[in-house]
Amino acid sequence: MKALRCTAALLLAFGLALNSTPVRAQQVSDEEVSQAYIYLLGRLLVTRQQQLDFQDGFKWNELIHRKPGAVDWPNPNLDVAYSEAWVAVDETSCTIVTVPEIKDRYFTVQFLNGWGETLANINERLFPDKHSGDFAMCLRGANVDLPADATRIDLPVKYSRVLARVALGSDPDKAVALQHEFKFKATGTPQLPDIPKTPIFDLDRLPGAEAFEAAAAALDSEPDLSLGLEPLQAQVRSIAAAIKDNAAERQRVDGVIKSIAFPELAKAGAIIGHGVAHNGWARPSVVGEYGLDYLTRTLVNNGGIWANIKPEVLYYRGGKDESGADLTGDHSYTLTFPKDALPSRFAKYFWSVIAVDNTHFRVLPNPMNRFLLNEQTHPEYGADGSLTLYFATEKPSGAPDGNWLPIPKGQKYRLTFRFYGPIDGVANGTYWPPALAKVN
């Protein structure tokens, strides 16, 4: 009797092989498809940028020094001189990062993984005893001989994206000179990966079912370090397998992405995932390090890729005026900070605000080639100590030149307000920029 039970169990386990009709796997629900897509999209946004980078001339372990403002990704920070690289390390090779001596000026060297998660920063805040000289970026556990004076930093992955930032401040030429003193040097010869071949799409035309066709390339090439998201990875692979030779299922998945996932992303975008909105400004709940919050990670990778962690910078996104209407170049707006709550009060290093379009998140062209407001535009303060910033196509009457950001006529846009070295209410989440007032 026991043997008969075992035989029956085996037959059942093998799909009742004696029956000519195969057992079909349960179809994933529309919402499961949507969430799997949102999860996968976060990775595809990074592989998209990685492919664009290498098409633009990147080489592994070689630092590219960009001219100020000459970067091409969503929501660039125009307060800094950027240097960029993709770094490869392995069990036999590290990369030496040489950091110049920098005093009284913000800087950091940020390392991110292939999901947009920040892995490390090199600066005087994290390395107060030594924030210049040589730093050895190594794969965790690698046994590599290093220079005696190099500070070792272990990375949990073999491949990472690097952004070195030096604040332009009141002396941009000095910032550029310092920028060029950052150096990279590989020790040994690391094994270099193939760049994942995934869709290169426009940000206003996100991929549909073809995203899942690239699932294996995306997931196999980079581990997700966020523990607890393994079921989503399995779901992504399951959907990819289900649509491979099934045109009807592929069509269904494509329809779900466009009818459910896209609206869910748009709705979540209003508060940047699980963030909070107030006064027309949205503040993310997490940034740079996301844990299980893959929704916010995907939204940030879409609207401001390579975001750093909160102790370095905090971002507020403004897309509404005080009445809740979208911002547009058809109107003029003012943003007034009272004397006791000026932006400088909440930033240890500096603050700035830029305007970007609502689709590609690039700064807006204007005849003045002015793309941000900050202390370096020399804004003037009111007689009562307050600060008013202006956003308009034409400079409003009475507006100081350094307080005005030109906006193209008819352009829908949003603002990004940055606080570098956030302190006080920005650091603890109790502060919100004032509402934008529509003047005309």
- Annotated CATH homologous superfamily of the largest domain: Domain of unknown function DUF1214, C-terminal domain
- Tell me about the largest β-sheet: 6 strands, antiparallel
CATH topology annotation of the largest domain: Jelly Rolls
CATH architecture assignment of the largest domain: Sandwich
Strand content: 15-25%
How would you sum up the global shape? globular
Radius of gyration: 25 Å
Q: Structural class, from helix and strand content?
A: alpha+beta
Question: Widest sheet: strand order?
Answer: 10-11-12-18-14-15
Instruction: Count the beta strands.
Output: 19
Give the low-pLDDT segments: 1-25
How far apart the termini lie comes to: 87 Å
Please write the CATH class name of the largest domain: Mainly Beta
Q: What proportion of the residues is helical, as a percent range? A: 10-25%
Number of domains: 3
- Look at the structure and give the mean pLDDT: 92
- Secondary-structure element order, N to C: HHEEEEEEEEHEHHHHEEHEEEEEEEHE
Count the DSSP helices: 9
